[in-house]
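Lab notebook page, bench 4
Experiment: in silico fold of construct C2
Operator: M.H.
Input chain length: 432 residues
Purpose: comparison with the prior construct
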Amino acid sequence: MKRDIQLQTLKGFKDYFADDIKLRDFVRDTFRNLAKEFAFEPLETPALEYSELILGQSGEEAEKLYYRFKDNADRDVMLKYELMTSMCRAVAQNINNITFPYKRYQIQNVWRADNVQRGRLREFTQMDVDILGSSSYIADAEILQFGLEFLERLGFKEYLVRINSREIIQGILEALGIDLSKFEDVYIAIDKLQKIGVEGVKEEMIRKGTEEKDVEKIIDIITTNDIKKLEKLFSNSETGQRGLENITNILKLLNDLGIEEKFVKFDLTLARGLASYTGAVWEYEIVDDNIGSVSGGGRYDKAIEKYTGTEIPATGTSFGLERLTEVLKGRDILKSKLPEKKEVLIIPLDKENVVYATNFAKELRKEGIIANTYPDIKKLKVSLKYANKKGIPWVVIIGENEVKENKVLLKNMEKQEQELFNTKEAINKILE
């Protein structure tokens, strides 16, 4: 009996079929292969974590988006909001078996009850690289270098990474004599600058208790990106000096590595919202598409301390797979980046030819050719129609005569030409 069920996916959740998966695999494989070249090691962590392990790590704004619930044993659990916190837990739990600096990459799904928009879903895939156990700016620069090379390998031409530091923002408040209890409110407001604009940021800071005269000074400083001005300003702020020195070293190293200035931007208006960040922060953007950020990251030196009791410095970045695939869809660069696949549909004309057809399919696969044996014995035009709809370039037709002569009838679907070959000749023709 047919049940009256409305077929639909939950808002923010998506099915992926072959064309989407080919693109997703291309991006994942590019990320994974590059991570291995940089000597990052793979890690996977569970989808569910105890809520107490994650609460307090990402900030109040993030906690509104958690998928948190009680399981059947009445345990307080939640789906991973992001990969970093689970990684910190895993590292702390296995700390005696890990050699530092520990370089890790991870590609897994996460869940956020966020607003749905282009390239942003509620279940999505993050791709992370992190370096744990080093406080050096060299580690930050390597993460930044990795991200820029990743975007280049995907085929993008116009992209950049924007860099700032939480320590610099804190140094601005210290230098201006603003109570540091206002820091989080100021930082969160700056994080919203692209969404609500300068006036909106001013209003939020004032509403949260920062004096208007101080707000004007903060806005004046962060909209200049003047490093020399910051050097003078930080004469009485050790935090600001430390943050500025770190950023300056990172920028110089990236420049010395030959990375063009157009790909790197020091931007005082950048603020990453996660409360776990402690130093340099950054975001990668595709310049020629209105998609926004495709990656964000930074230094989070105190995140693992919650689990270990001792500070383990850490830095890393996270790319969103869906954001990247959304930008890549329909671009010509994809055609040149995806490897061409040789694919064949094998059509046995009657049951007596099935074994011969199946054995030939095995030979094709040994040569790296995708071999799809049509499973039903039907009229030839039905099978050929299937090949056309699937865009399969080659068809092998096997009937009684082909089996007797130990040959196959090879048809080029684009040219609509066919010829009788022995099996070796047919394979060579397909591989041309």
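Observations: The domain at 341-431 is CATH 3.40.50.800 (Rossmann fold). The longest strand covers residues 102-111.
Next step: discuss at group meeting.
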